Amino acid sequence: MKHWFLILIIISSLPLFSQGFKAGISAGFVASQVDGDESSGYNKLGFQGGAYTRYLFNDKWSILSEMKFIQKGSKESNEESMVYFSVRLNYVEVPLLLQYTLKEKFHIGAGLSIANLIGATVEDANGKVSQNYLEYTTFDYNLLLNISFQFYKHWIISNRFAYSVFPITKSSPRQFNNLIGLELKYEL
Q1: Which residues 6+ apart lie within 8 Å of 137 measured at CB?
Q2: Of 16, 140, 143, 168, which is most buried, counting CB atoms within 10 Å of its CB?
Q3: Residue 17: how many CB atoms within 10 A of its CB?
Q4: Closest CA to 119 of 95, 84, 92
Q5: pLDDT (tens digit, 9 = 90+) per residue, 156-178?
Q6: Quick one: which of 34, 25, 23 has its CA closest to 71?
Q7: Which is nearest to 49 in space by CA: 27, 25, 23, 72?
Q8: Which phi and psi (to 5°) does residue 14 adopt?
Q9: pTM of structure
């Protein structure tokens, strides 16, 4: 696992030594769910934010590398049946995407990310649940699809879909992070 982080850091730093390099910051929100739990719907809202670099190969192709904090999880709340269940998973994530420019300011991309779990909270109607209830894996590997649009000079709006490649739980039931994110980026 340590090797993956080293490889991603090296790849992330490559743009620093090139003329085709751009950098920026980002912040936004995610709507997430955990596939495999008993609730459904993108009901868990979370924050995401961080920094990124973008290496431009030419006017059509680029690589986007990010380092961000992101909140994932699941939430079920029904007042009529008195059901409440919430999973909050905090990660430090390193996405790497290959982007293609369709038009001058419109990009599509796909890639992978590795996320390190830095905190997990599970709550039900009675409050916090013991962490032994579900053991979450330390790392979450995701497939990513991204659409972004530069709407004004340095400002970009980005929409991303992410899905876990491997289960995020160590035991049964097998569960997977599934999210849709929207973020605002400022590119230098």
Answers
A1: 117, 166, 167, 168, 169, 170
A2: 168
A3: 8
A4: 92
A5: 999 999 999 999 988 767 899 99
A6: 34
A7: 27
A8: -55, -45
A9: 0.85
Q: How far apart are the C-alpha atoms of 22 and 17, rounded to whole Å?
A: 11
Q: Do the beta carbons of residue 167 and residue 145 sit within 8 Å?
A: no
Cα 96 to the chain's mean position, in Å?
A: 11
Per-residue pLDDT reduced to its tens digit, 1-23: 555 565 555 555 554 555 688 99
Tokens of 155: 């400002």
What does the H/E/C string look like for the chain? CHHHHHHHHHHHHHHHHCCCEEEEEEEEEEEEEEECECCCCCCEEEEEEEEEEEEECCCCEEEEEEEEEEEEEEEEEECCCCEEEEEEEEEEEEEEEEEEEEECCEEEEEEEEEEEEEEEEEEECCEECCCCCCCECCEEEEEEEEEEEEEECCEEEEEEEEEECCCCECCCCCCEEEEEEEEEEEEC
Tokens in use for 44? Answer: 């868990």
